Amino acid sequence: MDPIKFGEDLARKADLAHSLSTQKFSWPTLSGQSLVFMAMGSSAFAAQSMVTRLLACGGDATSTLSSNPTPPQSGAHKTLIGISASGNSVETNAAFDAATGYREKIWLTNSAERGSHTVAMHAGIESGGVASLTYLATHIALLRLFESLGCITGLEKTIESAAVAIADIYVSKETWLPELINHITSPAGSYFIAPADRLCNAQQSSLMMREAPRLPSVACETGDWSHIDVYLTKTLDYRAILFPGSKWEDQLFKWTQERGSQVLTIGFDHPQATSSLRYKNDSDPLVRLLAETTYAEILSQHLWVTA
Q1: How far apart are CA 122 and CA 117, in angstroms?
Q2: Could you confirm whether domain 3-160 is CATH 3.40.50.2000?
Q3: For 151-201, how does the pLDDT look when each residue is reduced to its tens digit (9 = 90+)?
Q4: Tens digit of each residue's pLDDT (9 = 90 or more) over 29-48
Q5: C-alpha span between 297 and 154 (Å, rounded)
Q6: Alpha carbons within 13 A on the beta-carbon side of 58
Q7: How far, in Å, are 109, 159, 161, 201 from residue 287 at the CA level?
Q8: Residues 70, 46: contact at Cβ < 8 Å?
Q9: Which of 94, 209, 265, 306 has its C-alpha lying 20 to 30 A from 68's C-alpha?
Protein backbone atom coordinates (compact mmCIF):
# COMPACT_ATOMS: atom_id res chain seq x y z
CA MET A 1 0.00 0.00 0.00
CA ASP A 2 1.30 3.42 -0.98
CA PRO A 3 -0.37 6.75 0.00
CA ILE A 4 1.13 8.72 -2.90
CA LYS A 5 0.05 6.16 -5.49
CA PHE A 6 -3.37 6.01 -3.81
CA GLY A 7 -3.64 9.72 -4.54
CA GLU A 8 -2.68 9.07 -8.16
CA ASP A 9 -5.43 6.45 -8.38
CA LEU A 10 -7.98 8.95 -7.07
CA ALA A 11 -6.83 11.52 -9.61
CA ARG A 12 -7.95 9.22 -12.42
CA LYS A 13 -11.17 7.97 -10.83
CA ALA A 14 -13.41 10.31 -12.86
CA ASP A 15 -11.70 9.27 -16.09
CA LEU A 16 -12.21 5.63 -15.18
CA ALA A 17 -15.94 6.22 -14.63
CA HIS A 18 -16.10 7.94 -18.02
CA SER A 19 -14.40 5.00 -19.75
CA LEU A 20 -16.60 2.46 -17.98
CA SER A 21 -19.78 4.21 -19.10
CA THR A 22 -19.48 2.46 -22.48
CA GLN A 23 -17.61 -0.63 -21.34
CA LYS A 24 -19.17 -4.00 -22.14
CA PHE A 25 -19.07 -6.67 -19.45
CA SER A 26 -19.20 -10.34 -20.37
CA TRP A 27 -22.15 -11.38 -18.25
CA PRO A 28 -23.95 -14.48 -19.53
CA THR A 29 -27.74 -14.61 -19.65
CA LEU A 30 -28.87 -15.04 -16.04
CA SER A 31 -32.59 -14.27 -16.30
CA GLY A 32 -34.74 -16.47 -14.10
CA GLN A 33 -31.82 -17.81 -12.10
CA SER A 34 -31.18 -17.55 -8.39
CA LEU A 35 -27.95 -15.60 -7.86
CA VAL A 36 -25.60 -16.17 -4.93
CA PHE A 37 -22.89 -13.53 -4.42
CA MET A 38 -19.79 -14.38 -2.43
CA ALA A 39 -17.11 -11.86 -1.41
CA MET A 40 -15.14 -10.17 1.37
CA GLY A 41 -14.52 -6.54 2.36
CA SER A 42 -15.38 -3.86 -0.21
CA SER A 43 -16.52 -6.52 -2.67
CA ALA A 44 -18.97 -7.85 -0.10
CA PHE A 45 -20.30 -4.33 0.53
CA ALA A 46 -21.04 -3.92 -3.18
CA ALA A 47 -22.53 -7.41 -3.47
CA GLN A 48 -25.03 -6.80 -0.67
CA SER A 49 -26.09 -3.53 -2.28
CA MET A 50 -26.77 -5.36 -5.53
CA VAL A 51 -28.77 -8.04 -3.75
CA THR A 52 -30.93 -5.32 -2.17
CA ARG A 53 -31.61 -3.90 -5.64
CA LEU A 54 -32.29 -7.27 -7.24
CA LEU A 55 -34.78 -8.22 -4.53
CA ALA A 56 -36.60 -4.91 -5.02
CA CYS A 57 -36.78 -5.71 -8.74
CA GLY A 58 -38.35 -9.09 -8.06
CA GLY A 59 -35.18 -11.09 -8.51
CA ASP A 60 -33.94 -14.04 -6.49
CA ALA A 61 -30.58 -13.25 -4.94
CA THR A 62 -28.56 -13.52 -1.77
CA SER A 63 -25.06 -12.66 -0.65
CA THR A 64 -22.69 -14.20 1.84
CA LEU A 65 -19.22 -13.58 3.17
CA SER A 66 -16.80 -16.04 1.61
CA SER A 67 -15.68 -16.93 5.14
CA ASN A 68 -19.20 -18.00 6.15
CA PRO A 69 -18.97 -21.54 7.60
CA THR A 70 -22.63 -22.14 6.68
CA PRO A 71 -22.96 -20.76 3.11
CA PRO A 72 -26.24 -20.82 1.14
CA GLN A 73 -27.19 -24.21 -0.25
CA SER A 74 -26.28 -24.70 -3.89
CA GLY A 75 -28.67 -25.93 -6.56
CA ALA A 76 -28.98 -26.58 -10.28
CA HIS A 77 -31.08 -23.41 -10.63
CA LYS A 78 -28.49 -21.24 -8.85
CA THR A 79 -25.49 -19.33 -10.17
CA LEU A 80 -22.58 -18.46 -7.89
CA ILE A 81 -20.85 -15.10 -8.44
CA GLY A 82 -17.54 -14.80 -6.63
CA ILE A 83 -16.09 -11.29 -6.39
CA SER A 84 -12.44 -10.52 -5.68
CA ALA A 85 -11.06 -7.32 -7.19
CA SER A 86 -7.43 -8.23 -6.59
CA GLY A 87 -8.01 -11.93 -7.13
CA ASN A 88 -6.06 -12.46 -3.90
CA SER A 89 -8.85 -12.91 -1.36
CA VAL A 90 -7.86 -16.24 0.17
CA GLU A 91 -11.34 -16.70 1.64
CA THR A 92 -13.13 -16.06 -1.66
CA ASN A 93 -10.68 -18.17 -3.66
CA ALA A 94 -11.09 -21.08 -1.28
CA ALA A 95 -14.89 -20.86 -1.08
CA PHE A 96 -15.30 -20.39 -4.84
CA ASP A 97 -13.08 -23.36 -5.68
CA ALA A 98 -14.78 -25.58 -3.11
CA ALA A 99 -18.34 -24.71 -4.19
CA THR A 100 -20.16 -27.46 -6.09
CA GLY A 101 -23.67 -28.10 -7.33
CA TYR A 102 -24.25 -24.73 -9.03
CA ARG A 103 -25.59 -24.33 -12.54
CA GLU A 104 -22.71 -21.96 -13.22
CA LYS A 105 -19.88 -20.26 -11.35
CA ILE A 106 -18.81 -16.74 -12.40
CA TRP A 107 -15.68 -14.94 -11.19
CA LEU A 108 -15.82 -11.10 -11.15
CA THR A 109 -12.32 -9.64 -10.84
CA ASN A 110 -9.82 -7.01 -11.90
CA SER A 111 -7.14 -9.68 -11.97
CA ALA A 112 -6.51 -13.06 -13.61
CA GLU A 113 -9.23 -15.34 -14.90
CA ARG A 114 -10.51 -18.12 -12.68
CA GLY A 115 -12.81 -21.02 -13.44
CA SER A 116 -14.81 -21.40 -16.64
CA HIS A 117 -16.31 -17.90 -16.79
CA THR A 118 -14.58 -14.68 -15.68
CA VAL A 119 -16.09 -11.20 -15.90
CA ALA A 120 -13.39 -8.52 -15.99
CA MET A 121 -13.91 -5.26 -14.07
CA HIS A 122 -11.70 -3.19 -16.40
CA ALA A 123 -10.50 -0.93 -13.57
CA GLY A 124 -6.91 -0.86 -14.79
CA ILE A 125 -3.94 -0.82 -12.45
CA GLU A 126 -4.81 0.20 -8.89
CA SER A 127 -1.27 1.14 -7.90
CA GLY A 128 -2.04 2.44 -4.40
CA GLY A 129 -3.22 -0.94 -3.17
CA VAL A 130 -6.48 0.51 -1.79
CA ALA A 131 -9.80 -0.68 -3.24
CA SER A 132 -11.12 2.61 -4.58
CA LEU A 133 -11.07 2.26 -8.37
CA THR A 134 -12.06 -1.38 -8.12
CA TYR A 135 -14.89 -0.53 -5.71
CA LEU A 136 -16.27 1.81 -8.38
CA ALA A 137 -15.70 -0.76 -11.15
CA THR A 138 -17.37 -3.51 -9.11
CA HIS A 139 -20.52 -1.41 -8.76
CA ILE A 140 -20.59 -0.55 -12.45
CA ALA A 141 -20.09 -4.19 -13.44
CA LEU A 142 -22.92 -5.25 -11.12
CA LEU A 143 -25.16 -2.47 -12.40
CA ARG A 144 -24.59 -3.79 -15.93
CA LEU A 145 -25.77 -7.18 -14.67
CA PHE A 146 -28.77 -5.42 -13.13
CA GLU A 147 -29.42 -3.81 -16.52
CA SER A 148 -29.17 -7.14 -18.35
CA LEU A 149 -31.90 -8.51 -16.08
CA GLY A 150 -34.26 -5.74 -17.18
CA CYS A 151 -34.16 -3.82 -13.90
CA ILE A 152 -32.73 -0.52 -15.15
CA THR A 153 -32.30 1.55 -18.30
CA GLY A 154 -30.21 4.56 -19.30
CA LEU A 155 -27.18 3.35 -17.40
CA GLU A 156 -24.59 4.86 -19.74
CA LYS A 157 -25.93 8.36 -19.10
CA THR A 158 -26.03 7.73 -15.36
CA ILE A 159 -22.41 6.59 -15.26
CA GLU A 160 -21.40 9.65 -17.28
CA SER A 161 -23.22 11.82 -14.72
CA ALA A 162 -21.32 10.02 -11.97
CA ALA A 163 -18.02 10.74 -13.77
CA VAL A 164 -18.93 14.44 -13.77
CA ALA A 165 -19.81 14.22 -10.07
CA ILE A 166 -16.53 12.50 -9.15
CA ALA A 167 -14.56 15.09 -11.11
CA ASP A 168 -16.43 17.90 -9.34
CA ILE A 169 -15.65 16.42 -5.92
CA TYR A 170 -11.99 15.94 -6.82
CA VAL A 171 -11.29 19.37 -8.32
CA SER A 172 -13.01 21.15 -5.41
CA LYS A 173 -11.19 19.19 -2.68
CA GLU A 174 -9.16 22.16 -1.46
CA THR A 175 -12.40 23.96 -0.56
CA TRP A 176 -14.13 21.14 1.32
CA LEU A 177 -11.22 19.16 2.80
CA PRO A 178 -10.52 21.58 5.70
CA GLU A 179 -14.16 21.52 6.70
CA LEU A 180 -14.39 17.74 6.59
CA ILE A 181 -11.10 17.31 8.47
CA ASN A 182 -12.31 19.67 11.17
CA HIS A 183 -15.63 17.85 11.37
CA ILE A 184 -14.15 14.41 12.04
CA THR A 185 -11.50 15.63 14.52
CA SER A 186 -12.63 13.72 17.58
CA PRO A 187 -10.99 11.05 19.74
CA ALA A 188 -14.15 9.03 19.18
CA GLY A 189 -13.49 8.77 15.44
CA SER A 190 -15.92 9.21 12.58
CA TYR A 191 -19.33 7.71 11.87
CA PHE A 192 -20.71 7.23 8.36
CA ILE A 193 -24.44 6.73 7.90
CA ALA A 194 -26.38 5.76 4.76
CA PRO A 195 -29.76 4.28 3.74
CA ALA A 196 -30.06 0.51 3.34
CA ASP A 197 -29.60 0.45 -0.43
CA ARG A 198 -26.31 2.34 -0.05
CA LEU A 199 -25.15 1.07 3.33
CA CYS A 200 -22.21 -0.19 1.28
CA ASN A 201 -20.99 3.39 0.89
CA ALA A 202 -21.05 4.04 4.62
CA GLN A 203 -19.12 0.79 5.09
CA GLN A 204 -16.64 1.67 2.35
CA SER A 205 -16.13 5.18 3.74
CA SER A 206 -15.43 3.81 7.22
CA LEU A 207 -13.08 1.24 5.75
CA MET A 208 -11.12 4.01 4.02
CA MET A 209 -10.58 5.73 7.36
CA ARG A 210 -9.39 2.50 8.97
CA GLU A 211 -7.28 1.23 6.08
CA ALA A 212 -5.42 4.40 5.09
CA PRO A 213 -4.85 6.75 8.10
CA ARG A 214 -5.75 3.89 10.51
CA LEU A 215 -8.36 5.90 12.40
CA PRO A 216 -11.44 4.54 14.19
CA SER A 217 -14.59 4.72 12.10
CA VAL A 218 -17.98 3.03 12.12
CA ALA A 219 -20.75 2.56 9.54
CA CYS A 220 -24.47 2.40 10.25
CA GLU A 221 -27.76 2.30 8.31
CA THR A 222 -29.87 5.45 8.75
CA GLY A 223 -33.02 3.85 10.16
CA ASP A 224 -31.09 1.35 12.25
CA TRP A 225 -29.02 4.19 13.67
CA SER A 226 -31.77 4.92 16.20
CA HIS A 227 -31.37 1.37 17.50
CA ILE A 228 -27.57 1.13 17.42
CA ASP A 229 -25.46 4.30 17.35
CA VAL A 230 -27.88 6.67 19.05
CA TYR A 231 -26.53 5.56 22.43
CA LEU A 232 -23.08 6.90 21.62
CA THR A 233 -24.40 10.44 21.26
CA LYS A 234 -24.90 10.53 25.02
CA THR A 235 -21.27 9.89 25.93
CA LEU A 236 -18.99 10.67 22.95
CA ASP A 237 -17.95 13.66 20.91
CA TYR A 238 -20.01 12.12 18.15
CA ARG A 239 -19.17 13.26 14.58
CA ALA A 240 -21.36 11.80 11.83
CA ILE A 241 -21.31 12.04 8.06
CA LEU A 242 -24.76 11.37 6.63
CA PHE A 243 -25.53 10.29 3.07
CA PRO A 244 -29.07 11.04 1.78
CA GLY A 245 -32.01 8.89 0.79
CA SER A 246 -33.69 7.56 3.94
CA LYS A 247 -37.07 8.70 5.24
CA TRP A 248 -35.64 8.25 8.75
CA GLU A 249 -33.23 11.18 8.58
CA ASP A 250 -35.45 13.45 10.67
CA GLN A 251 -35.59 10.84 13.42
CA LEU A 252 -31.78 10.80 13.49
CA PHE A 253 -31.60 14.58 13.62
CA LYS A 254 -34.08 14.68 16.49
CA TRP A 255 -31.63 12.76 18.66
CA THR A 256 -28.48 14.52 17.50
CA GLN A 257 -30.05 17.93 18.06
CA GLU A 258 -31.15 17.03 21.58
CA ARG A 259 -27.66 15.78 22.45
CA GLY A 260 -25.54 18.34 20.65
CA SER A 261 -23.96 15.86 18.24
CA GLN A 262 -22.53 17.09 14.96
CA VAL A 263 -23.82 15.80 11.62
CA LEU A 264 -22.35 16.82 8.27
CA THR A 265 -24.47 15.92 5.26
CA ILE A 266 -23.06 14.96 1.87
CA GLY A 267 -25.19 15.37 -1.24
CA PHE A 268 -28.12 17.18 0.38
CA ASP A 269 -29.00 20.01 2.74
CA HIS A 270 -30.82 19.66 6.04
CA PRO A 271 -31.78 22.54 8.36
CA GLN A 272 -30.35 20.74 11.38
CA ALA A 273 -27.07 19.69 9.77
CA THR A 274 -23.84 21.16 11.14
CA SER A 275 -22.84 21.75 7.51
CA SER A 276 -23.41 20.31 4.05
CA LEU A 277 -21.21 19.37 1.11
CA ARG A 278 -22.82 19.34 -2.33
CA TYR A 279 -21.59 18.13 -5.70
CA LYS A 280 -22.85 18.00 -9.27
CA ASN A 281 -25.71 15.56 -10.04
CA ASP A 282 -26.08 14.63 -6.38
CA SER A 283 -29.87 14.21 -6.61
CA ASP A 284 -29.54 11.00 -8.68
CA PRO A 285 -29.56 7.89 -6.43
CA LEU A 286 -27.23 5.93 -8.70
CA VAL A 287 -24.83 8.84 -9.04
CA ARG A 288 -24.74 8.89 -5.25
CA LEU A 289 -23.93 5.17 -5.24
CA LEU A 290 -20.98 5.68 -7.58
CA ALA A 291 -19.67 9.05 -6.42
CA GLU A 292 -20.22 9.85 -2.73
CA THR A 293 -17.45 7.63 -1.32
CA THR A 294 -14.96 9.86 -3.16
CA TYR A 295 -15.12 12.26 -0.20
CA ALA A 296 -13.91 9.64 2.29
CA GLU A 297 -11.32 8.32 -0.15
CA ILE A 298 -9.77 11.75 -0.68
CA LEU A 299 -10.01 12.54 3.04
CA SER A 300 -8.35 9.29 4.04
CA GLN A 301 -5.56 9.69 1.49
CA HIS A 302 -4.85 13.23 2.70
CA LEU A 303 -4.74 12.16 6.36
CA TRP A 304 -2.54 9.20 5.47
CA VAL A 305 0.00 11.40 3.69
CA THR A 306 0.06 14.06 6.40
CA ALA A 307 0.09 11.70 9.38
Answers
A1: 15
A2: no
A3: 999 999 999 999 999 999 999 999 999 999 999 989 999 999 999 999 999
A4: 999 999 999 999 999 999 99
A5: 27
A6: 6
A7: 22, 7, 7, 12
A8: no
A9: 209
